Amino acid sequence: MRRFLVLGFLALYVLAQPANAQTATVGAKKGTVFKDCGTCPEMIVVPKGLYIMGFGGKNRHGPPRRLTVENDFAIGRFEIKFNEWFACVSEKGCRHKPDDHKWGMIGRPVINVTWAQAKNYTRWLSRKTGQNYRLPSEAEWEYVARGGTTTQFWWGDTPGQKMANCRDCESRKCCSAKDYSCCSHGTKPVGSFPANPFGVHDTAGNVFEWTEDCWNHDHTDRPKDASARREGDCTNRVIRGGSFYYFNKVARSYYRAKNPPGVKSYWLGFRVVRELN
After folding, report:
1. Least buried of 90, 100, 182, 205, by fewest C-beta within 10 Å?
2. Would the pTM of this model clear 0.85, i.e. be above it?
């Protein structure tokens, strides 16, 4: 009964959204926020630029590489939410009805979706809007997560307080300052923490996010632009951002992890990129 009522609320929410929405094209100002339709995710324009991807030396996060992001693009201000996912379901663009792990759906990032299901959502958005939506490349994702900074997190080199949802980010209720095993456990509504300098929320913690890329052991020989790496170990895909489940080191802007594309999790979601035509 509970799940029926939640899904019913989401369906009413979807139907109540306006048919028209502001959109954006080439030349849109940095930080412009828009939606291509009433039930589409809220996007924000990110400027082209240069940055140093990675950290350290001979490990999965390095070696650091100077990359060029050649074009402005738009990315979701937030991780895709349950109501946005169920808009796709209601229009028969998606079939999967992901479990909310009994944490609630309203305002929370969609979880328990595979890489292919996330890709399918971007195809539905593209058909619906006539725009080119896709998953971010790993390089685009880190560029956005850094927000023009060079520190371990976009706000600095320490986890700080109330900046992210992770196991030891001091943002959750715990029974002991030294024992994180009994912390409150789960996702938080998107936008619960400050936006980074590009105006994007939750790139650190909350849920890991799928990217387009096949897994490669490190950044050696990666392209000098921000394109996705479609060669390598494609039985695993790169995920970024950390989550509520993991400690703060996993939420650092450069931190890389992998996940089989057919395996979903309660700590894994996604956000989308839209090219500016």
Report:
1. 182
2. yes
